[in-house]
Specification:
Blueprint: H1 5-13, E1 44-49, E2 54-58, E3 60-67, E4 72-77, E5 80-81, E6 87-88, E7 93-96, E8 105-112, E9 118-130, H2 142-150, E10 182-184, E11 187-190, H3 198-217, E12 226-227, E13 230-231, H4 234-237, H5 241-247, H6 257-264, E14 267-270, E15 283-287, E16 293-304, E17 307-320, E18 335-344, E19 358-362
Helix pairs in contact: 2-3, 5-6
Length: 368
Amino acid sequence: MPRSPAIVLVLGLLGVACERGGGTGGDADSDALIDPAGEPDGAYVAILSPTDGSTVPNPVTFTFDAGGSVMTVIFEADGWALNDEPLDADLGTFVYDFSLTGVERTVLLTGFDAAGEAVAVDEVRLTPYEEHCRIPDQIGFNRYTVRAINDWVLFPKDGTHPYCWEYYGDVCGEMWGQIHDGLYGGEVLFPGGGDCFCSGHTLEIFLRAYRMYLEEGGLPETTRFEHMGSVLPVDSVDVGEFYQYWQGFGVATYASSADAFETEGIGTNLYEEDWDEVMAGDYVNLSRSTGSGHAVIFVDWVEEGGEKVGLRYYGCNGSGQSCPDSGDPENTWDNSGPSFVTEYFDGHGGSVIPRYLFIGRVFMPVSS
């Protein structure tokens, strides 16, 4: 629905408030929750959830608070009104079904007094997503890994950022196999090239997951990963031991992200006797009877008659599917780059060798 004249008027009145530099959306006492009309009655509005910068399922449920002289409120996103009529200020919740998902939206909440004058404003940035075609939320550090995978803005599963490996003669954007810049310790260690290969992309997801952890906690990007006194050094990630274990050269005879985590004290191997505990978001290196291998992130086991016969995973693939659930009605096939694949074990119709399936879990960062 086009912006109404009332909304145009509100934007004119609230020019200063709209420049507050990104809403926190949860503090009614914030200086950002101003009274643009200058009324001394403490008028305010606050978007309590979603929080600023969050990714949330669609339809989006907004919770809000209002006080002082605020009698009604109006939501808008990027200049479009979300509610046809003003809402009562004491309503507290509002649900909106965005027709376009997977892109960041700026949502403005404006409060009006009894005379219809705008007296308060709040703002948040959010990205709505469809709950189908996503990995469910997890616990521990896996939740950040899964959130990174689920980020369709950074990692669309539609072939936008294709698989590329110069070993095959491909001409790739960069040599690191990462789509976006790989940051750690406040430094760009691995320039992104817009395409990916398997082990580069799993490292990219790990680094992005850690940045999401820092962002959620309000910690500076220079903060290094620490678990109970074990600190992951920048030099180790920057082609040092951590990177060499990840890629399988130098100090390592085979690639294993699990060994990279365990060697640095920030994670552990999950051996075959632990496979019932494996969760979505665990990091995997697999080998095949064909002589090839792959670096991926676990999604689920494939079982037949109670026996594990394969696995579903996420990674940078030559050809994969767009959804973690292959039966999802939104699922598409033959997508190069970030995508989902099901492979079976050797002896069960596939070539994955179970005894060479290395699975690692990252611990939650904990300061000593």
